[in-house]
Amino acid sequence: MSSSPTVPTSTTSSSTSSPFPPDARSGRVALIACGALAEPAARLAASCGWPLDVHPLPPLLHNQPARIAGEVAALAGELTQRYDRVAVGYADCGTYGALDAVCDELGLQRLAGLHCYDVFAGSRCVERLLAEEPGTYLLTDFLARSFERTVVRELGLDRHPELRDAYFGHYRRVVWLAQQPTPELRERAQAAAARLGLPLTVVPTGDVGLVRALAQLIS
Question: Could you tell me which of 72, 86, 143, 150 has the fewest CB atoms within 10 Å of its CB?
């Protein structure tokens, strides 16, 4: 069973305070979302007026991708009792097909692509960036914002900075796929790159890719 919150993130002003709204089965869609995508997905659903409730799983599952498929299956088992439709706000995300197997078994759709970078920037853009420089470390807004917690502390670099080269010695640059390139996030992305001793390149993506991907899931 997932340890993540199962209370949906409301995306309409008509939602009630109940964990599962009375009209949840009347045309609403439950999105099981990677924690890194949950906030922008809820924000975009609200702005687009989509009948979408976001149910996040912990973003740190990306450090243990073998667990993602099982966590999605467990939460989907709960949500299918309450919603007409359940969609999966993950790309493959390092599950090597295990998530696709769960989706096939349960009749669910997931986000297209190998990882969330494909969702934000498009697979062709990501392929081009990696072809230009194979030693590219990709940042999203979420990673830029949470880098100290999700990367530095999780990898123990705050306690053992000498491990930096063991983890990141083969990287040559950091590329920030910027959905919302605010000055505050730019500063955080620059700080993340500095932590790794690498130059920062900013590639603005906006929300177009995520909007398109979510629209396909709920259409």
Answer: 150
